[in-house]
Amino acid sequence: MTQITDVTAYMTELGQRARTASRALAAADTHAKNAALNAIVDDLENSRKALITENAKDLQAGKEKGLDEALLDRLELNDARIDGMIEGLRQIAALPDPIGEIFDMNYRPSGIQVGRMRVPLGVVGIIYESRPNVTADAAALCLKSGNATVLRGGSEAFHSNQAIASSIRRGLEQAGLPSDAVQVVETTDRAAVGDMINMPKYIDVIIPRGGKGLIERISQGASVPVIKHLDGICHVYIDDEADPKKAFDVALNAKTQRYGTCNTLETLLVNDTVAETILPALAEAYLDKGVELRGCAATCKILGDQCIAATDEDWDTEYLGPVLSIRIVDDLDAAIDHINTHSSSHTESIITENITKSRRFLREVDSSSVMVNASTRFADGFEYGLGAEIGISTDKFHARGPVGLEGLTSVKFIVLGDGHIRQ
After folding, report:
1. pTM over 0.90
2. H or E segment to which residue 377 belongs
3. Using CA atoms, how far apart are residues 342 and 312, in angstroms rounded to an integer?
4. Is 49 exposed, middle or buried, given 0-12, 13-18 or 19+ CB atoms closer than 10 A?
5. How many CB atoms are located within 10 Å of the residue 84 CB?
6. Do residues 224 and 199 touch, judged by C-beta distance below 8 A?
7. What is the rounded (10 degree) CA torsion for 201, 203, 207, 210?
8. Based on the number of CB atoms within 10 Å of its own CB, is 6 exposed (0-12), middle (13-18) or buried (19 or more)?
9. Span 288-329, pLDDT tens digits
10. Nearest to 242 by CA among 346, 332, 363
11. Of 111, 167, 216, 349, which has the fewest beta carbons less than 10 angstroms from its beta carbon?
């Protein structure tokens, strides 16, 4: 670990280098950026043993510190997860380059043409916990979208992140791009985070990825704009016109496919007309997987001792574990009202065969991803074809939902004339 005595001076120098690299990267063509991504892929492939060795150091330290199983799972790098990183980079390389795209060109009465061009944000700062694969995903998305990036991973993944950073640096150099285009902070001192989120001269936007506590601290303390989501309180509503098999499959998958993710189902809403038919079988499946059920009075009446009474707090809780809240509602209006009251605006899904109801749900539910007859677990940049996501935004500015390449760009107005002057 690098010994850094003056953290502020170190972060300032890092920011200056990132700003300089961002100018070179903004001018890089698609071929150079893709060449760098492919070189990073090759280096990661050739560095598997080193990556797993360095990750083992983090896992051992995590166990000694008493990290829980969920955190250790997020921290682990194995061949399958390295394959996932590599596939993500390959997908990003194959995606169209958004930079330089010109659109909305129109002639004005004066004779000039006015339109917009897509451009990089500049320097993106990313602060994240546990998952070392974020280092590769974030670097690749920023690189393809023409942004330099400063990455600050959690101390628990220090060795893993530095190993991945070495592959990224070698790939950039091989492609003739500045190695400072992607910099991974080399200190675990928390003061680095405070400096990083208050360097608007060098960093254009901050993206925090991690628990609610981390994101709240970043949002409250930053003078740099923040793209964020705080909670993943996601809902599935089973309508009275739902196909029973679809309802069963989606509701079970949305909760149990993986517990500790922000797009996991936390509250199941069921129309009272079908509750007695659908809930018993679903409850049995949940209980077989070890899920604790907390329900409204009507739910508890149907499920008996399979369910405990939910509190008001449950409807506003992101469990990130094998716990599910269930509420029986009168109709679609009640479901939409519950979602817009208690949701964190992340992801919601309706199970119905009624097209009119599905269109209403899509239009009236105010979340960053809204689905029909699909598991909330699909709310993910990889699944959306973005290659990988740099984060999910539940804000309405500047990006919303999974943030991929386009979410890492801005636009500028361009004007084409032929000696035109304003009269």
Report:
1. no
2. none
3. 10
4. exposed
5. 17
6. yes
7. -90
8. exposed
9. 999 999 999 999 999 999 999 999 999 999 999 999 999 999
10. 332
11. 111
